[in-house]
Amino acid sequence: MVASDWTRLAEEMGYGYLEIKNFEASTNPTAKVLEDWQGKCFRATVGGLLEMLTRIERHDILTDLKQKIEDDCRKYVDQQQKQYSLPLQDPVVGSSFPRSHELSGITTRDDPLGNTPELFDAFICYCQNDIQFVHEMIRQLEQTDFKLKLCVFDRDVLPGTCVWSITSELIEKRCRKMVVVISDDYLASSECDFQTKFALGLCPGAREKRLIPVKYKPMKKEFPSILRFITVCDYTNPCTQGWFWNRLARALSNM
């Protein structure tokens, strides 16, 4: 499968055939497209660009440029703060903590100041059609003697945050392991694909046993090739189903 190039990105930005042909004459068509898009589009933001890269499935770019994007955004914010002086305000009128820290929390139990980020035993990678099994996972692993703490995006992440950046933060810095719920629907999910590849990129060859694939129902499609070298926790095998939750819990609690 050939990865989408700058022409696919230009199409996603709304450029037509003739405009794209004009960009080809440039020595750096990608830079020319981004420059032109920034000058004429009100949605020419970092978030808008990340959304388009996600839609054209260039998750490799998102992963490779993550740190650079964050650094550039931080520099831009610093420049804006230096350029515009903030009006004086009585602290009694303002909020109970500095405005710059108001959005530091990304999960429901985060300290709003960002001083004590919420940590988890495992990030659960799943698609919406498999949410019922995720509920069962919560009952078996959190609400029993195992007392594990799972990061379930729909339950634990505050709304209004950038899905890509928050997911990366959770997988890389907040969660010790990651459970990948494998199903036919998982194979069709671009979000699950990004999360899995991002986690594998943090731990090449899964030497730290960061990823734990879980197969919970029979599949019609072929098992994902990028996970074939990792031992699977198989809920579909009736002979080993009685050991399933204990094995999974021990894998997650193992440092």
From TrEMBL:
<keyword id="KW-0391">Immunity</keyword>
<dbReference type="InterPro" id="IPR000488">
    <property type="entry name" value="Death_dom"/>
</dbReference>
<comment type="function">
    <text>Adapter protein involved in the Toll-like receptor and IL-1 receptor signaling pathway in the innate immune response.</text>
</comment>
<dbReference type="InterPro" id="IPR034249">
    <property type="entry name" value="MyD88_Death"/>
</dbReference>
<dbReference type="InterPro" id="IPR035897">
    <property type="entry name" value="Toll_tir_struct_dom_sf"/>
</dbReference>
<dbReference type="GO" id="GO:0005737">
    <property type="term" value="C:cytoplasm"/>
</dbReference>
<dbReference type="GO" id="GO:0050830">
    <property type="term" value="P:defense response to Gram-positive bacterium"/>
</dbReference>
<feature type="domain" description="Death">
    <location>
        <begin position="1"/>
        <end position="69"/>
    </location>
</feature>
<dbReference type="GO" id="GO:0043123">
    <property type="term" value="P:positive regulation of canonical NF-kappaB signal transduction"/>
</dbReference>
<dbReference type="InterPro" id="IPR000157">
    <property type="entry name" value="TIR_dom"/>
</dbReference>
<keyword id="KW-0399">Innate immunity</keyword>
<dbReference type="GO" id="GO:0045087">
    <property type="term" value="P:innate immune response"/>
</dbReference>
<dbReference type="GO" id="GO:0035325">
    <property type="term" value="F:Toll-like receptor binding"/>
</dbReference>
<dbReference type="GO" id="GO:0002755">
    <property type="term" value="P:MyD88-dependent toll-like receptor signaling pathway"/>
</dbReference>
<dbReference type="InterPro" id="IPR017281">
    <property type="entry name" value="Myelin_different_resp_MyD88"/>
</dbReference>
<dbReference type="GO" id="GO:0034142">
    <property type="term" value="P:toll-like receptor 4 signaling pathway"/>
</dbReference>
<keyword id="KW-0963">Cytoplasm</keyword>
<dbReference type="InterPro" id="IPR011029">
    <property type="entry name" value="DEATH-like_dom_sf"/>
</dbReference>
<dbReference type="GO" id="GO:0006954">
    <property type="term" value="P:inflammatory response"/>
</dbReference>
<dbReference type="Pfam" id="PF00531">
    <property type="entry name" value="Death"/>
</dbReference>
<dbReference type="GO" id="GO:0008063">
    <property type="term" value="P:Toll signaling pathway"/>
</dbReference>
<feature type="domain" description="TIR">
    <location>
        <begin position="118"/>
        <end position="252"/>
    </location>
</feature>
<dbReference type="GO" id="GO:0005886">
    <property type="term" value="C:plasma membrane"/>
</dbReference>
<protein>
    <recommendedName>
        <fullName>Myeloid differentiation primary response protein MyD88</fullName>
    </recommendedName>
</protein>
<dbReference type="GO" id="GO:0070976">
    <property type="term" value="F:TIR domain binding"/>
</dbReference>
<dbReference type="Pfam" id="PF01582">
    <property type="entry name" value="TIR"/>
</dbReference>
<keyword id="KW-0395">Inflammatory response</keyword>
